[in-house]
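Per reviewer request, we include the raw input and output of the structure prediction for the construct analysed in the revised manuscript.
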Amino acid sequence: MILRRIATAIAKQDWFVVIIELAVVIVGILIGLQVAQWDDGRRERIAERHYLTRLHGDIQAMIEWQIAEREWYTDHRQKVATGLNALQACQLPDADRETFEFMLATHQNIAQLNVNRATYDEMISSGALSRLGNELLKQQIASTYAIAEQIQNRIDYFSSDIGRAGNIIWRYVSFSISPTEEFSISWREHLGLQGPYGTSVSYDFDALCKNSEFRNAIVEIYDSVDDRLLFTSYFEEALNELSSLLEVEIEPAP
């Protein structure tokens, strides 16, 4: 219809009408583009909020896991310290025997870092992270996951030290499977024993405390547990900072 009016106006050389009609067409196109752009922006904002809400859930789950790990490694470090002190003093009081045996049974319990990456990886692959308008939040997200990778690389590195220490421990300590009834409740809680059997240990304490190679292996275990606790605390701090930024970003507008 508009094109017919424009053609008629041109035929009549009514340039004023031509200009008016062309202006109407151009304005209509611009409005259409603006509406489409607004709609695309609205869709991106909805998708962004969805991603950030999911990411916040991932971060909260990781924080809870890090808190549990921090408690575990704090307790575990104390147990290894108690066992190491007993070896250095060459005395194992009855009150510390269970702790000493727990240390031996769990000497390789240095877990990998627990990282929920599904939402983060999806944000990268979809371009949602690069489109994120909040630059501070964008940097904190990238930084937190970079920290996770760095920590995991460090854990992988000192896992080889744990392996060497473990080989020494295995030369001087005998491990076997025994009914869990032989263990105390605290052992079952710490080891997470679900079945009817668990690990028991047998050893010659007098020989162990005089064995410098064995003591050095336990020192390495202590250092590894101490490092793992440090990594856990550092990662937990980074996660809390990111969680705070996410909470502000996804908080509903008043």
